[in-house]
Amino acid sequence: MRLSRYFLPVLKENPAEAQIVSHRYMLRAGMIKQQTAGIYSWLPLGFKVLRKLENIVHEEQQRAGHIPLLMPTLQSADLWRESGRYDDYGEEMLRITDRHGRDMLYGPTNEEVITDIFRAHVSSYKDLPLTLYHIQWKFRDEIRPRFGVMRGREFFMKDGYTFDLTKEDALHAYNRHLVSYLRTYERMGLQALPMRADSGPIGGDDTHEFLVLADTGESEVFYDNAVTDIRLGAREIDYDDKPQCQSIMEEFTALYARTDETHDEALFNQIPEARRRSARGIEVGQIFYFGTKYSEPMGATVQGPDGKPVPVHMGSHGIGVSRLVGAIIEASHDDKGIIWPEGVTPFHCGIVNLKQGDEDVDAACNQIYAALRAVGLDPLYDDRKERAGGKFATMDLIGLPWRITVGPRGLKNGVVELTSRRTGESVEMSAEEAVKKVAEIYQPHHEASPHWEPMAKRSFHTWM
Ligand code: 5CA
């Protein structure tokens, strides 16, 4: 993309309404525009990041054997009357009446709809296990929408639903989700700690939230600092291997880590004092096992091996995809702007032309631009007639991890500059070397981005 032809409405001033850094930078970098309280348009740069996250979630879900589908945003109130949640859900549910006077709602979550799909089409235990998921807009009429996309009213969520014959199988589905979520967040350049939590209106006793530690987080959390040393890394995972998923779940959840709703002071105090932490966190996902809470009242039964009908054991598993855009910025920024991890950056590399209109510099920039695209990368070329300072400020604000700067003086010596946004370090090298270096950085299994896969090799490229 050439910046002169793009739509990147950056703001020079700090927007007064933004209280936290991610909200401020998302507005300033032209990623989002608020349309009304808690409801946002995703402008091109923000939309690109949202799509990248969505893509990673799809890839990791499908790697775990989960099947995508798409359910509607509007749902019939009757389904929620069957489960008993229509009256229970309260004022967070946006209720709508259609022209025939029928009660509808904008889905805050989809347990009822998926259970309805299941009971219509599945009748035998032989069709289990089954995990269906979608990534779809949700609406919760939050009393205090705030912090931009972090607590929106309309937000983008991955929600997956598991159907199993036994509790034991359902707990494997739970563990499988836990592992696939850890992988998902690590690919996004984030550490999200699973913590024992409260299940709220979804129900059930087994539930973990995934928290990204950040001072601006809305959740209060208590944990043993040793949990922050555990990484999934590039280990091979067989999602059908029950003992392996179980042992990873245990590895990540054995140490004390809880949100305030389930915090237990006595247990907490058993941790060596030097490792006790209380902090704030951003909840970027939650997994639930709730057994037959929906299958029983809604009649989602299968014929068991003995021919008798049994209600299926269910769980639901969510990732806050739009919230993650803000969470990543909270975890990765400096006072100049965003610093995108390689796995989620909207463009792989910026190109800054220091003397637009100079024949040699223009030609060199065009060559670099074409060469990066030829290796499957997506560069953003600042080809505007602007002063260098303004171009650097824009690049720093929008946070592309790598920048190639091309100017007349360097070119005379046969060099351009490759700069890391994270360290600020610049190295001079030939244009060819710079392109090669950037291409290497985005190669799969490079240490800077262990799980990143180049676009051309993506197996699920249709999602982009
Ligand atoms: N049905 C279950 C699992 S799919 C469910 O709805 N879980 S949830 O309530 O925990 O939501 C899943 C994730 O959505 C949360 O972990 C959070 O990251 C995100 N989320 C929830 N409410 C909001 C909101 N108002 N704005 C942005 N993201 C939200």
UniProtKB/TrEMBL annotation:
Record domain Aminoacyl-transfer RNA synthetases class-II family profile: where: 38-341
A UniProt-annotated Pfam family: tRNA-synt_2b
Keywords: Aminoacyl-tRNA synthetase, ATP-binding, Cytoplasm, Ligase, Nucleotide-binding, Protein biosynthesis
InterPro entries referenced in this protein's UniProt entry, alphabetically: aa-tRNA-synt_IIb, aa-tRNA-synth_II, aa-tRNA-synth_II/BPL/LPL, Anticodon-bd, Anticodon-bd_dom_sf, Pro-tRNA-ligase_IIa, Pro-tRNA-synth_IIa_bac-type, Pro-tRNA_synthetase
Catalysis: reaction(s): tRNA(Pro) + L-proline + ATP = L-prolyl-tRNA(Pro) + AMP + diphosphate
Major enzyme class: ligase
Gene Ontology cellular component annotations, sorted alphabetically: cytosol
Any GO MF annotation of the entry: ATP binding
Cited CDD domains: ProRS_anticodon_short (cd00861), ProRS_core_prok (cd00779)
Enzyme Commission identifier(s): 6.1.1.15
Compartments in which it is found: Cytoplasm
Role summary: Catalyzes the attachment of proline to tRNA(Pro) in a two-step reaction: proline is first activated by ATP to form Pro-AMP and then transferred to the acceptor end of tRNA(Pro).
Family membership noted in the UniProt record: Belongs to the class-II aminoacyl-tRNA synthetase family. ProS type 2 subfamily.
Complex formation: Homodimer.
NCBIfam families associated with the record: PRK12325.1, proS_fam_II
Protein name as annotated: Proline--tRNA ligase
Gene: proS
